[in-house]
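Researcher: Structure for this, please.
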Amino acid sequence: MPSLSHFVTFMMSLVGQLGYFGVFLVIGLEYACFPIPSEIVLPFVGMSIPQTSLSFLPAFIVSIIAGLAGSLACYLVGLWGGAQFLNKLSKKSSQLQNALDIFNDWFCKYGRWAVLFSRVIPLTRTYISLFAGVNRMSLFDFFLYSATGIALWNLVLMSLGFYLGHNWALIEGILNTYSHIILILLGIVAAAYIGLKCFKSRSKA
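Model: Predicted structure, token format:
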């Protein structure tokens, strides 16, 4: 796809020109909920390392710092006005309301572990920061559990690009399979949650 090719070229040229600051900028924006897919960005950052003066370990450390910086931005948005924003968003559709309820209930139930595990789940991995801010999670816990999840996710995806950069089709296949499995599991959990709520509401009626 030409658009993907142009995006990849831009990402690699940015990292090549700006070095570690380029790594920080690209990954930080992704974790700040900008529409930049980490499944593409992180492997290509790893892929670009052998072609630049960067080294894997420093780039990996910068990626964690960038992830925390971007996550903090979302956390602060949630802390200072996220509740009002989510309330307005939920009024737009009942499906969106259900999704937000599921996500928020999951966060309230599992707290710190929700932050950690969400970091390795597509779709939820960046937006969990917003819910952490809305629920006024301890900033220390937020950083600790976010850093663990971010480090794991970044290490895996950057390593795929670093070691398998010559075979993008293989990387894409691995990530697509992972995403499909996770989305199926999330769908099952969401259906079970909605079914349980309906059962409880009928029991009370």
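Researcher: Any notable elements?
Model: The chain has a mean pLDDT of 78. The first helix runs from residue 2 to 18.
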